[in-house]
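Structure first, sequence second, as always.
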């Protein structure tokens, strides 16, 4: 085979056939370089596109995070405002309850005072204009109240003089507690009840007199009745005796 080259053309003489091939190396280099440039452009374009999209996504995330932060700040502010309002309302509720309690207590106190005034008015009216009360000495009221400690009591006795009230009544009052002690009937006088301080209660009034005092029942003594005897001094004065059941006069607090 004979091969020759002339002006970039290769001549091949193979026996009976002649093959002609063109040989241009610079064109191949140009094509290869172009392909490389195109590929590089595509890669660069893809990179720029991805970078651009990444930047856009990052900006979107930043904006979303900023919006969430603003919402969080607003929510915290709203929570603080609600807590403050709740505290104010709770305080107002407490003040209302306290005020209501004070008003209720004041109202009860006024009602009790009115009741006491009514009782006093009825009491004085009975003295000034008696209708059913017998003339002479009378026991208008007698109450015994527990004062907290066991067996300790306070008594209040109110005596009146109706109609025949032209003279001052003088004398004394004797009180005796009847009941059971040690399984047997017993009577305890004021001297023992007052620890020797009182034997009798002095009496001196024209229209009415309040007599108050404290007694301590003996240990083991169970009272059932109280005997009150009013003994006026002077001629023509009649003694007054009254017996009260314990259940009728006791007022436990």
């Amino acid at each position: 085979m004979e091969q020759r080259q002339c002006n970039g053309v290769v001549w091949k003489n193979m026996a009976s056939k002649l093959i002609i091939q063109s040989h241009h190396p610079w064109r191949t280099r140009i094509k290869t370089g172009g392909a490389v440039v195109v590929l590089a452009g595509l890669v660069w374009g893809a990179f720029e596109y991805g970078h651009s999209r990444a930047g856009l996504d990052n900006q979107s995330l930043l904006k979303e995070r900023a919006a969430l932060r603003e919402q969080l700040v607003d929510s915290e502010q709203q929570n603080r405002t609600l807590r403050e309002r709740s505290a104010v309302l709770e305080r107002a509720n407490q003040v209302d309850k306290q005020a209501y309690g004070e008003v209720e207590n004041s109202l009860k106190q006024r009602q009790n005072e009115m009741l006491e005034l009514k009782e006093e008015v009825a009491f004085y009216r009975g003295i000034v204009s008696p209708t059913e009360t017998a003339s002479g000495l009378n026991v208008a009221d007698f109450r015994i109240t527990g004062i907290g400690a066991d067996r300790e009591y306070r008594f209040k006795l109110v005596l009146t003089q109706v109609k025949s009230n032209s003279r001052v009544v003088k004398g004394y009052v004797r009180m005796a507690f009847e009941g059971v002690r040690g399984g047997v009937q017993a009577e305890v006088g004021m001297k023992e009840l007052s620890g020797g301080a009182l034997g009798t209660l002095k009496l001196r009034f024209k229209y009415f007199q309040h007599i108050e005092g404290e007694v301590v029942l003996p240990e083991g003594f169970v009272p059932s009745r109280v005997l009150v005897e009013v003994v006026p001094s002077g001629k023509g004065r009649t003694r007054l005796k009254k017996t009260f059941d314990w259940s009728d006069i006791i007022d436990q607090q």
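Margin note: Residues 36 and 82 are 68 Å apart (CA to CA).
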